[in-house]
Amino acid sequence: MTPVTTIERLMTLPSDQDISGRTFGDEEIAYVTEALRSGTLTTTKGKFGKQLESAFAAKLGAAYAYACTSGSAAIHIAVAAINPNPGDEIITTSITDMGALTPLLYRGVIPVFAEVDPKTLNVTADTIREKLSERTKAIIVTHLFGNPCEMDAIMELANERGIPVIEDSAQTFLAEYGDNYAGTVGHIGCFSLQQGKHMTTGEGGMVVTNDEALARRMFLYINKAWGYGDPNPDHYFMALNYRMSELQAAVALAQLEKLENTVAARQKTAAMLTELLHGIDGIETPVISDKATHVYWKYCLNVDDTKIEGGSVGMANLLKEKNIFSAPRYIVKPAFMCLVFQEQNTLGDSRFPFNLAREGAVDYSMENYPLTAKALHDILVLPWNEKYTEEHVRYIAENVRIAASTLRKN
Question: How far, in Å, CA of 105 to CA of 109, rounded?
């Protein structure tokens, strides 16, 4: 493809924060209307929650799927299914959302952060191996931006040690890894239905597994540990109410029916952008495993500041002038640099669970994470959604080229 050579006007890109970048339509309205007219808005008695769970499991090829209130709830449910003791450790990624970390603290778990590959910002088997200890109870891998981790090596390591793997697939709907979808390679998969995800209910989540025992624990944890359907149900252990409502489930079911087209649209326009950006010195397009497919929650560039003045920040400033609102360095700082970790602000003044940590486990300092620092320094996150057209992609590509040329060193 040959990109346009001049840009004569500002373009407004579709946004996943409003209808311009979302796929809501008559299907969602019809299902929500049906739910409202039924008068049954609890998924314990309605039909949409059950239909969603059955359809989601079938779509991913998982034996069990359960709906919940958010992606954070999904992580909490997964950790509860593993059932760690206070002071146990779970290895997770140095680059993740706080919503994937506070559930660990509420379960009394010590988060241990593994380094990332600077090109993909994903954890690897090697970075996980460095953090294993006798207290490691589970591993959480985050497939960042829609790009799956190298799961073969991670699962080999985990299986050698008998450690369960939780996949944070909040950004990775229908991403393939080998013959499976991300979220079904490990022991439990967690998904988010937050506003900007591939399918959305504003807030919401899903958990999946192929393990019957883990499925039972997850089902119970969503339902206050009440044994719905049991001969003599009881509240078997301490748990919360993480049930999705029928209204959310109705929207999610309609969204699920569009998911394959949504993902395909993102992949088509992303492939176009990759082709248009080929050969720009100092700009690297996404690195993808030959065993995986990328589903582009966002489209990320690595910017070499030895060649591009100002690096990702300089690029972002110029793109902003053209209404392309990118995120240089993705996040201001890793979650472990926030006060909840740095000052151990948890339950009262107890410092729980940090007060149970073994010596050396709580190493929450940036100097211990040079690869993370490098990754965040170089990354430029471009907005992406299924409503992008070829015209939008060409507009982005040409402005990236212009910005890179403008900022080129010597």
Answer: 5
